Amino acid sequence: MFSKVAPVSNLGNVAALGPLSVIAIMYMVIGFALTLTIKQFFWVPHRFRYGIFVAGGWASIDLSNSVILDITVSFHFEGDDDQTAAIAYSDALSLIFYVTFFTFGRKLVAMDFVGPDQ
Questions:
Q1: Per-residue pLDDT tens digits for 58-87
Q2: Of 21, 33, 34, whose CA–CA distance to 61 is shortest?
Q3: 106 CB contacts (<8 Å, ≥6 apart)?
Q4: DSSP helix/strand/coil, 112
Q5: Where are the transmembrane segments (predicted)?
Q6: Fewer CB within 10 Å: N-end or C-end of the chain?
C-alpha cells in the first residue's frame, strides 16, 4: 500500500483524502440505513440481528485493483500516473474499511452471541 501511495503524495492528492474519507463513511452509512430498513420489514434470525449491520455496512467498500487498472488504461486517463493515483485512492478506502471493520464490526458480530439462543 505504501509503495503506491508514496509516489503520488503531493499537495493535490493529499487534499483529496479528506473528501475520499467522507465518501467512504457515506457508503457505510447508506449501507447501515438500508440494512436497518431491511431489518424493520423482513425477518432476521436472532443470532444475526447485529451481523446483518456488518454485512450491510461494510459490504461495498472494497474495489478490485484489476478493475481500477483496466478502467484507467483507457485514453481518458493519463497512463501510469493516473493508475498509481487510482490505486492509492482505493488503498485509502480500504484503510478506512479495515480500521472501522476491525474496531466496530467485530464488536457487532460478538453482540450476536451474547445471551441465550432464542
A1: 876 666 777 777 788 777 777 777 777 777
A2: 21
A3: none
A4: coil
A5: 20-38, 50-73, 85-104
A6: C
